[in-house]
Amino acid sequence: MSASSTSGAAAAPEPVFPLSAATEGGDISQAFPFSSGNPRIEETRGIMHLYSDTNTDSLPNSSSESNPNSNLPVRRKPLVCVLGVPNHMTYADFCQFCGSFIQHILEMRIVRNDGVEDQYSILIRFDNQESTDSFYRHFNKKHFSSLEVDVCRVLYTMDVQYTGSIEHAQTSLASSTEQPYCPVCLERLDQDSGGILTTICNHSFHCSCISKWTDSSCPVCRYCQQQPEKSTCSVCSTSENLWICVICGFVGCGRYKEGHSIRHWKETQHCYSLELETQRVWDYIGDNYVHRLIQSKTDGKLVELNFHCSHADDGFGSCGCAPGSGISEALFNSKVEAIVEEYNELLTAQLENQRKYYESLLLEVKDENEREVFNAVEKAVSSKLQKIQAKLDKCTKEKRFLDDINENLVKNQEIWRKKILEIEEREQRALRFRDEKINDLEKQLGDLMVCLEGQKTLEQDPDSNEIREGAASPKPVESSTKNSSKRASRNRRKS
Question: Segment Disordered: which positions (predicted)?
Fold first, then answer.
């Protein structure tokens, strides 16, 4: 399984691994026939000699517990085969499944097992025996996933040899020459830089490159490892010489079997039927093929069907119309022109239909985008309007509250203004009353002081007896009155 041997099928049978006997050291081996390659181009067949797993199913004993490799084949090699990998598991899925050992893998090769259509096998070569034994103990009899019942069956490989090569078509230069470079990263297929994986169609890639390819087909030739299910006749269930009605899809066998496709035409008048093997269309009314192009079995491309003269007596198109005659040439040219014109019209119609179809899709997408934008804008506007309305209601409620407070404050202001005016008037009346009372008291005090001073003067004057008796002159009395009034005015000023 070197880079040169896996890039394309060998022209002659050549063993890839060292040949060995059927048994070695008492270990029992099993032979598994396999094949690889694209069946449309070239198919390589061989036989794998694998160690039987009966030796590993024995009960554990003390020696096996001390030495985990005691139940393994004695003359095993760093080469194993994973059997029964389901077809729906792609190359990337398997690389992810054994991702913990991918750095120890030197080479992997995908092969088909004869008689098994929904599974494939993988030959894996490791860099050392220890990694091989660890891979065997870790993945043998382990489920590929928790949702599947398929179990990974790992067997040690004794040897692999090719028994032959079958060419179904002319091999292209790309498949017959060595491919030293990875088609994905364009780097050399060197085992030191990373493991090499060879697909079922004999194309080699780096494991790190193919692990990013999530499709089950080959990145180079698009050959899919998961082949579609074989069709069978809807009546007798035969799988040979099948025809499918291009109108209703009924699958029936041809006239060389049970003739169910012809019976279907007679019952339904569906006159056009496609032969599944050659992809050619047959007209039951005209009793001939009516198509112009067929699909090549070599590369899958559409090619022109070989022209057969209608005047031919044998089945090879030979008649009296010589290729060099003018009638044959004119007839051939007219048919070619008619075919070209018909093809151009058909192509124009198909392109016009495709244009209308994609324009309608674009209009639908545009309308849908406009509706989504309108709905999004309407939703955003409605949500924003609701928020604004909520804020407005809140502000309105606050305004009403403030208006009530303002009205109450204005009323309180008027009440307090009236009270202040009343208090000021009361204070003014109290001040006036106090002033009047003070004036009265000052007058009374003055009169009292005058009286007191007069009495005191009378007591000190020697002529007081005369005054008492009423004989004294009135002059001194006036002077004393004046003096007392002056004292009273001074006291009032001081106060």
Answer: 52-71, 456-495
